Amino acid sequence: MEMMRRILLAGLCSMLTLTALRAEGRLEAEARAGLARACRYFSSISTYGGYCGIYSIDLKERYGEAVYEPAKPTEIWVQPPGTPSVGEAFLRAYRVTNEPVYLKAAEAAGLALAWGERAGGGWAHRVDLGHFEPDADSVKRNAGSSSFDDEVTQGALSFLIKLDVELDTPWLTEAIDLALAFMMESQFANGAWSQWYPLIGGYHDYFTFNDGAINDCIRVMLEAHRAYGRSKYLETARRGGDFIVLSQLPAPQAGWAQQYSHDLEPAWARKFEPAGVCSAVTAANILTLIDLYRYTGDSKYLRPILPAIEWLERSRLKEGGWARLYEVDSNRPIYGDRNDGGKVHYDYAAISAEERSSYAWQGGYGISTAMRRFQELQESGPDPINQPQADPATAESRAAAAERLVPEVERVLKALDSQGRWIRNQRITSADFVTNTNLLCRYLDLAGRGKRGTP
Fold first, then answer.
1. 256 φ, ψ (degrees, to nearest 5)
2. For position 24, what pLDDT does the model report?
3. What's the first-to-final CA gap in the chain, in angstroms?
4. In 10 A of CB 182, how many CB atoms?
5. CB distance 305 to 286 below 8 Å
6. Which range, of 12-16, 141-145, 366-370, averages the lowest pLDDT?
7. Do residues 81 and 53 touch, judged by C-beta distance below 8 A?
8. Backbone angles phi, psi at 427, to 5 degrees
């Protein structure tokens, strides 16, 4: 009886495996077709190869990050998930499928960014391409300050560096060289970056960690060094790391502020953003310090981490999680409210419901991830310095990972309409396109049919 049970069980498992394989083949074909349909549609709504953040279904209305930011017909958005994010999605589709149509769309996004680049070398959140001349012999750039807020300049440059792996064209080389020179020129002597450069006044001129400004600058300079091997790019990244070390507040509040005045004191930003020690920035800085250590092998980037974690552990809220900001010296959680800007609140319940939903005053902020990564580093030691990591996944583990994605892939394909649109709340968004396209690419890569590796 036991032998018969085993035979029947083995037969059932074999049947289920064959069914799964057949289903995987069907789903892979559907994923490829869906990817093609979505990319074909989205590239068709570009503006000179670039993209906005939000579109009405009839495409008559276009917006940036939100519907309170209407875009002119000739404007595109750089702030993620705008043009650089869309361009990277096209580039990933090309690397997974080897279909030239995707590279062509990525190239168009890159050219739009080259024309949107400031004459000084960076980007603003939105750029007007009214001066775009597709047949011009050289790119023409407008003057103006550039932003490091919300990964604007860093995200655009990062995408162009990735695109440069696939293309060898003068306009791309020029755009990258100009942007990298701008990254180095805009760095302060102490290693920091401001929110905007050239400086425009107010809190925008402060040394800024908020929204990952300095962290993203360091990351993109490491990417540049990895891509081109020039020591000046690594030195720029290292100076950024040195500023993280320099700007750490003393124990027992060994974290970091969102921004610092030029005399290196925690500073106010907008009227509802008081000076304080920031748990979210501290988590981001821990991760950046780990990345710098793994890239350089220099242990000075590890020394600030343990005191920072000790402060975070002491600063947990009773109900769990963390406040975003803590008062300097007292370590009391503090909050702001744009309805009464300039006032510091100590009671989270006292700020308006609107403020609690529009600004992340309490949360996890990736702090547990940062703590875990530091623990893993202590247990395993650094990765090989400055070396790309091999993919350790076996065919079996890749297949299992692909299988785990099946429900999400099926959901995304079901939501894709016949025109190649993902419509949500009567809007078409770059965010949905990027997220869903990357999911399909991930699935196709794991399914093992891609001609090339993922980026």
1. -130, 155
2. 53
3. 53
4. 21
5. yes
6. 12-16
7. yes
8. -135, 155
What letter represents residue 428's amino acid? I
d(CA 161, CA 91): 12
Q: How far is CA 212 from CA 43, 137, 193, 199, 232, in A?
A: 29, 36, 11, 18, 22
- Write down the residue that tokens 């107010």 correspond to: 202
Burial 142-164 (b: 16+ CB within 10 A, else e): eebbbbbbbbbbbbbbbbbbbbb
- Give the integer Cα–Cα distance in Å for 309 and 314: 9
Amino acid at 16: L
Secondary structure (3-state) at 262:
coil
Give the SS3 label for residue 278.
strand
What is the spatial distance between Cα 241 and Cα 191, in angstroms, rounded to a whole number?
7
Whole-number Å distance between alpha carbons of 246 and 268: 19
| Alpha carbon separation from 153 to 41, 116, 123, 286, 361 (Å, rounded) | 27, 11, 5, 22, 26
Sheet strands (E) in 336-434: 362-363, 423-424, 427-429
Helix (H, G, I), strand (E, B), or coil: what is residue 313?
Answer: helix
What does residue 76 show for φ and ψ, rounded to 5 degrees?
-125, 165
Which residues are registered as beta bridge partners of 50? 47
| pLDDT band with cut points at 50, 70 and 90 for residue 409 | very high
Say how many CA atoms lie within 13 Å of 93 toward its Cβ. 34
Q: Distance between CA 325 and CA 258 in Å, rounded?
A: 9
What value does the mean pLDDT take over residues 350-370? 93
CB 40 within 8 A of CB 52: no
Q: Sorting pLDDT into bands at 50, 70 and 90, what band is 380?
A: confident
- Angle at alpha carbon of residue 28, lines to 163 and 53, rounded to 5°: 45
**Angle of helix 170-185 relative to helix 231-247, nearest 10 degrees?**
30
**Helix (H) / strand (E) containing 326:** strand 325-326
Q: Which two tokens stand for residue 2?
A: 């036991």
The H or E element spanning position 158 is: helix 152-164
Residue 45: closest CA among 96, 113, 108, 111 = 108
Residue 344 has pLDDT above 60, yes or no: yes
Report the DSSP pairing between strands 196-197 and 126-128.
Answer: unpaired
The C-alpha atoms of residue 445 and residue 402 are separated, in whole angstroms, by 8
Q: Which two tokens stand for residue 343?
A: 């006032």
- The closest of 382, 254, 368 to 306, measured between CA atoms, is 254
Distance CA 32, CA 451 (A): 13
CA distances from 47 to 61, 130, 275, 431 (A): 13, 10, 40, 17
Q: Which of 52, 177, 42 minimizes the C-alpha distance to 127? A: 52
Q: Is the pLDDT at 78 greater than 70, yes or no?
A: yes
